[in-house]
Amino acid sequence: MAEQALVANSALLHSAPIAHKSITVAARETLTMASIGASLGKSEALKAAIRNAYGVALPDKPGRVEGNGIAFVWAGPDQWLAVAERGTSRDLETEFKAALMGLASVVDHSDGRVVIRISGPRARDVLAKGVPVDLDPRAFRPGDAAITHASHIGVILWQLDDAPTYEVALFRSYADSFAHWIDEAATEFVSVRD
User: Can you list the domains of the chain with their CATH numbers?
Assistant: First the structure.
């Protein structure tokens, strides 16, 4: 019997990234992710541990903070999604389980979720076609986040900068459906004339 080996594949196997002057869309394939849920009665101790280790205050409402090479996105009361570059061998689940023992439950999401970056002057227009969140710069700014959906696909959305640049985290099994939707939504802005 032949030995079988697992091979890492892109979450967007059936879709090419969009690279256009008005919008770019690409999967961030080099991330490690973990969810953190505060243990009962340990929320303040968890927040103090994160502040001491990473130099950031965990958000108490929908938002994203970043410090010391890691971002934390609010994912519900006393819950956060942590996202960082994997680098040579970084694994947030292992890192957090050692640092947060007794303070939080930690679950790896590195292979279960994908983060897709959408940026450019038309990013807001494309997202508005399927995301029921007011993305006007007066209502949704860098550091803001929302748990919502994009064309009926559950996502966590956050804004990185004023370009605007957004990132969307979703379950990997929906990546092809999301890519199909965003390709269709971006079509009018990526015509061959431009």
Answer: 18-28+113-189 (3.30.1360.120), 31-108 (3.30.70.1520)
Question: Do residues 148 and 90 make contact, with C-beta atoms less than 8 angstroms apart?
Answer: no
CB 92 within 8 A of CB 31: no
pLDDT digits (tens, 9 = 90+) for 56-74: 999 999 999 999 899 999 9
Cis, bond preceding 121 (omega within 30 deg of 0) = no
Q: CA–CA separation, 82 vs 72, rounded Å?
A: 5
**3-state SS class at 194:** coil
For residues 119 and 24, the answer to whether their CB atoms sit within 8 Å is: yes
pTM: 0.90
Specify which residues 166 forms β-bridges with: 118, 159
> What residues contact residue 103 under an 8 Å CB cut-off, 6+ apart?
38, 39, 42, 45, 46, 49
- Angstrom CA distances, 18 to 87, 119, 160, stand at 25, 10, 19
DSSP code at position 21: S
- What local confidence, expressed as pLDDT, does residue 11 receive? 64
Residue ranges in 6-84 assigned as alpha helix (H)? 43-54
Element of type H or E holding 177: helix 175-186
